[in-house]
Amino acid sequence: MNRRKSQTVLLVEDNPKDELLTMRALKKSGLANKVQVVRDGAEALDYLFAKGEFSERDITDLPNVVLLDLKLPKIDGLEVLRRIREDDRTKRIPVVILTSSDETKDMVAGYDLNVNSFVCKPVSFSDFSNAISQLGMYWLAINEVPAEEVE
């Protein structure tokens, strides 16, 4: 079974309420050892590529999954996804769009950029918590990723 160095979830979310709900649900599921929260698209890219305030971070220690909102300040979620997929170092990181948008155009754009999953945020806390638990179980406990580059 291949696993990344740490069981890290990168949560890219600018809404404090959604961030809190996601953090509670992840904690309740007991699956994520570490959740790194960033609040805009530029900060997400800085984290992933070890730039800016994250320049001291080990760039090889990638998150197991990125939970990515679409409507973000500075750089929107689709552009973040495009940059993740363009770079050989990050192109295989599982990315889940976790958004309140239920617009077909957003879903199509995400899948055109090779998102792994598109999830509309449920309205009720119990439904939201259940969805996050299921996402965590799948992406952190069941899904396997290549340990290193395969030639």
Characterization of this structure:
With 151 residues, this protein is α/β, with parallel strands linked by helices. The chain has a single domain, classed as Rossmann fold. Helices cover 39% and strands 15% of the residues. The protein is built from 5 helices and 5 strands. The protein has helices at 16-29, 41-48, 77-86, 104-112, 125-142; strands at residues 8-12, 34-38, 65-68, 95-99, 117-120. It has a 5-stranded parallel sheet, with helices on both faces. Strand 1, helix 1 and strand 2 (34-38) form a beta-alpha-beta unit. The longest helix has 18 residues, at 125-142. The mean pLDDT is 88.
List keywords for this structure.
single chain; 151 residues; alpha/beta; Rossmann fold; 5-stranded parallel beta sheet; 5 helices; 5 strands; 15% strand; globular
SSE order: EHEHEHEHEH
The percent range for strand residues is 15-25%
* Percent helix range: 25-40%
- How does the overall form come out from the CA principal axes? globular
The strand line-up of the biggest sheet is 2-1-3-4-5
Task: Characterize the biggest β-sheet.
Answer: 5 strands, parallel
Number of domains: 1
